Amino acid sequence: MGFQSLKDVLKEQLEDLYSAETQLTTALPKLEQAASNDELKKAFKEHLEETRGHVKRVEEALGELGVTSPTEECKGMKGLIAEGEEIIEMQGDATAKDAALIAAAQRVEHYEIAAYGTVRQLADDCGLDGVRDLMDQTLDEESNADKLLTKIATGGMFKAGLNRQATS
Ligand SMILES: [Fe+2]
Questions:
Q1: Average pLDDT, the chain
Q2: Distance of CA 164 from the midpoint of ligand 1 (Å)
Q3: How far apart are CA 149 and CA 40, in angstroms?
Q4: Nearest to residue 120, comparing CAs of 10, 18, 4?
Q5: 3-class DSSP string for 34-76
Q6: What percentage of residues in the chain have a pLDDT greater than 70?
Q7: Which element (helix H / strand E) includes 3?
Q8: What would the pLDDT profile of 66-101 be if each residue is shown by its tens digit?
Q9: What's the rounded mean pLDDT across residues 146-161?
Q10: How far is the CA of 12 from the centre of ligand 1 (A)?
């Protein structure tokens, strides 16, 4: 087997993304529950809704390529989620923990942004404009989610919220 064409690479990348997004739909509610800041909780909740849409878009793209039952497991996302879960289980200052949750979530977003940048380009190269446009929509949402996390992290809440012990 192996890769015979760019389309094969696209299929493999999409299968991996399908696994990544599906794993995220179970991880995001845990992040939401672990967060203390209202804005951060809301960001995780809203991104869960978007992520459900991302799963559907990847499914649609796979359908275009004739893949009906993707079997790949995204080990990268599995590792990122495992790291996030370590943070979820940690005790301590609520605001410091929120900062760590944002750090974990931004690693996830950047991982996805890299993957969607690749698949949108592969789809374009293969002349699959519909798939490219679908992936572009998701890429935009991932970028916006990342920017929102940056905004929350840099909005001053950490300086105001951290206790003396956590800042020293
Ligand atoms: Fe996503």
A1: 94
A2: 36
A3: 8
A4: 10
A5: HCCCHHHHHHHHHHHHHHHHHHHHHHHHHHHCCCCCCCCCCHH
A6: 92
A7: none
A8: 999 999 999 999 999 999 999 999 999 999 999 999
A9: 83
A10: 17
**Residue 158 reports pLDDT greater than 80:** no
Distance CA 19, CA 77 (A): 8
Look up tokens 């519909």; give the residue.
130
CA of 160 to the centre of ligand 1 (A): 31
Ligand 1 centre from 2 Cα, in Å? 27
The alpha carbon of 161 and the centre of ligand 1 are apart by a number of angstroms equal to 29
Asked if pLDDT for residue 1 goes beyond 80, the answer is: no
Q: How far is CA 11 from the centre of its chain?
A: 19
**How many whole angstroms from 58 Cα to the centroid of ligand 1?**
10
Helix axes 129-154, 94-125, angle to 10 degrees: 160
Q: What is the pLDDT of residue 82?
A: 98
**E strand or H helix at 17:** helix 6-34
CA–CA gap between residue 14 and residue 55 (Å, rounded)? 10
Give residue 155's pLDDT band: very low, low, confident or very high (50, 70, 90).
confident
From the CA of 44, how far away is ligand 1's center (Å)? 12
